[in-house]
Amino acid sequence: MKQLTFASLQVKNLEASKDFYTQKLGFEIGTTNPQACVFKYNQGEASFAIRTPLEPIEGKELGIGVAIWFAVNENVDELKEKFIGNGITTAGPIIETPFGRAFHVKDLDGYKLTFLETKEK
Fold first, then answer.
1. What dihedral angle (degrees, nearest 10) is formed by the CA atoms of 103, 90, 83, 62?
2. What's the rounded Cα separation, in Å, for the pair 117 and 72?
3. What is the pTM assigned to this prediction?
4. Average pLDDT, the chain
5. CATH of domain 6-52+66-118
6. What is the SS3 assignment for 20-85?
7. What tens digit of pLDDT does each residue of 61-116 get?
């Protein structure tokens, strides 16, 4: 296997999740259709989608055990404060990882999103 080229998260409410990712986190919409919304981040360097469920999800807990990491150009201290200002509850403090400094947020369905300020700039 060479690389992961795309990720798609099943969400309970497509419109609410679309608002969360665009209005709260600042993601840009690449394309959209009635079943999905594809986001681009950092001028299209990162791309992933949220989508309506592929199978019934009633009564199921989404997001458990799933973490998606985004390397960012921003200072994570400033980015975390920006997200808090947008009404997002972050999941814990900024941490030191082998890859750089990072922090986590959870989306509306419990998916953990990690924003990483890499050691290389």
1. 100
2. 5
3. 0.86
4. 89
5. 3.10.180.10
6. HHHHHCCCEEEEEECCEEEEEECCCCEEEEEECCCCCCCCCCCCCCCEEEEEECCCHHHHHHHHHH
7. 888 888 899 888 889 999 999 999 999 988 899 999 999 999 999 999 999 999 99
pLDDT-based confidence at 119, cuts 50/70/90? confident
Name residues whose C-beta falls within 8 Å of residue 48's C-beta, 6 or more positions apart in sequence.
6, 7, 8, 9, 38, 39, 68
- Enumerate the domain spans of the chain: 6-52+66-118
Pairwise CA distance, residues 24 & 4, whole Å: 26
CA dist 108 and 56 (Å) reads 18
